[in-house]
Amino acid sequence: MKTNEELKKIIKDDEDYKSLSQEEKIEWMSLNIFNKNSKDLKYLLCTNYIHQQLLDEHIARTGLYQWINVFNGKVSYPRDVEDYNEYDLVQVNLSTQDIPLVPNIKKQITGNTKLIANNDYTTEAWAMAFGCPTTFEREINFADMIFGTEYFQCTAVSEITGRKCFVIPHPADIKRLKSIPTIPKKNIISTIWRRYDNHSYIPSLAVRNHGLTTQLLGYDKSKDPKTWLTTTLFDYVYAGTNFFDFCDQLRESKIVYDPFTFHSYSRATVDTAALGVAVVGSNRTQSSQICYPFTTIDPYDVHSARMLIQRLNEDNEFYKKVVDTALERSEYYNHLNSKERYLSALYESQLESKETKQIKKIKSEPIKGNDVLKEIAKELNRNEKENEGKSQFRFTG
Prior knowledge:
This protein is of the alpha/beta class. It has helices at 4-10, 14-18, 22-34, 52-56, 66-70, 101-108, 126-129, 133-140, 151-161, 174-179, 201-207, 227-230, 243-251, 267-275, 286-291, 302-314, 316-329, 335-353, 372-381, 384-387; strands at 43-46, 74-76, 89-93, 114-119, 145-148, 166-167, 186-192, 213-219, 236-239, 253-258, 278-282, 296-297.
């Protein structure tokens, strides 16, 4: 690993920067933003509500809390934080109860601490979650960097704030997920239920009559106005459970159907990809488009869903192709890639927030409209020479 001084000497333009290894890029950004190595950065996720179950699960679940593992940090209530200046990175998730934390924390920062605000609420739920857009703008614009977990969230946040909102999906512990031993597949097709859209009636038409046992996973009857109907649509209905049992439910399934109708990056599809599970997914979720390009369709397209389920059930070669592709593309969400995206966005935000800067700006191409997948394709393929001979798979978007 080169030192910061060595890196500064060789980085004269964009091409020099691109020649660095991923680890060197991360170190270069960390040193120039914080004047310390990335492993020494102190990270805090600050919130008024801590999901204790996620801590009891040793922060294994894919999603927001994985940033704690990426930066070896911690989560705290604001009342337990003595001095925000002790941290390099303080992150606030823009949930309804935590939005007011952004200006309150910013007022207490006097040093080089960076305040990060992220939105991971699907835009379909915004009317229920957020208040007046002008209030939302005033609060979150105190952050040094803002990001969302998928493209459509970011366009809305950008419109409200007048600032760039970076597309940074929450990370997954891909290494840990891939280390879980495989188990024999059962003759089961599992449908994932979401409390937001209650989408079960149409999906039941897609999964029935394939000679597979049907089950609905993650069901919450308190969010379903027609419990009496939903429970008749599948052979088995299972309530939400802890992450480890959920992973077992996914791993034992021959096929998983994930027909989420809202726009999301979708944690569940990242999990299935890393676990080596074949999925027919929704084209409204980013991770389905990335990890399952051959089996991603509109969540209301019953005929296409049935065709793909049948093909996965009968065509072993196609099944293997879907699983192998998902396993490889799941690395997009690993800790190292997530860390680089995070620091790169923060570095760019820092440059844009100041008129004069001694550090040379490394240019980045803006994401335009639905070209987000092309940008992801570039990122996945950027180390072509390093990966040569290791894999025959190429992501073309």
